[in-house]
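ingest -> validate -> predict -> emit
validate: passed (alphabet ok, no gaps, 280 aa)
predict: started
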Amino acid sequence: MTVREALSWACGELARGGVEEAAREARRLLALAVGEGPAAWSPSATLSRYFLGRLRRLVEARKRGMPFALLAGWTGFLDFELKVWPGVFIPRPETEELAELACGLLRELPPRPRVLDLGTGTGALACALARARSDAQVVAVDCDPRALACARWNVRNLGLDERIRLQRSHWFSSLEGEFQLIVSNPPYVAREGLARLPREVREFEPRRALDGGPQGLEAAKSILAQAPRFLSSGGWLLLEIAPGQAEALVTFAKGGVGLVETRVEKDMAGKERFFLGRCK
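emit:
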């Protein structure tokens, strides 16, 4: 089978499997199978049995809904790459926007700011913050040992061991001291909406990273209620939220949790996606 024939076969299989952008996915999977990008391919070149076998296995896995990032073992985030493991949530483009907002706030803070990443997962936010400001002291926590192991791999791979401290904690349960900036992408999917998530999210992402309780607000409200005790005066809390949750969270925050300023920012799709609160 030639490269052209292999791409045509893969595209057809993926389309029949309900995979969106099947032609693009076919090219990505072929590159993964042979270890070379499209620039190195000749459409008339014959693929070896070994590479065809690899391609078939990748196509079948993608048809079952396995995310491309898990097949590759890596995903891009801002201007760096992260190792991703099964059972650890894969960061999405919205979280890149969260990271950019957080880095903007971070750059305005006094020297040697203490920063907290709650529910770090792969370590994406913690790594972005540490790379944005070399004097920042970043603490990244997660309750899941597997997520912490994945984050530790990424921190070391990016040479950030001296800037990021990883710690096991369920939100604030094992933490002490104050922070100038707290950032989190908590679970925010309403429980009844879990079954309607895309298959690659529903079946391959850890439920604990998705399930935000009956209204999708349990984790965010828990963080809001506790964060002021860990924020220094004037410190910022920044959360990724689901569209439609902003009003409830702003109302909750104004109910006396200790934040004097709250606002909501939209993502690039125009959806209310980020909650910001400033401590008094």
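The longest strand covers residues 231-240.
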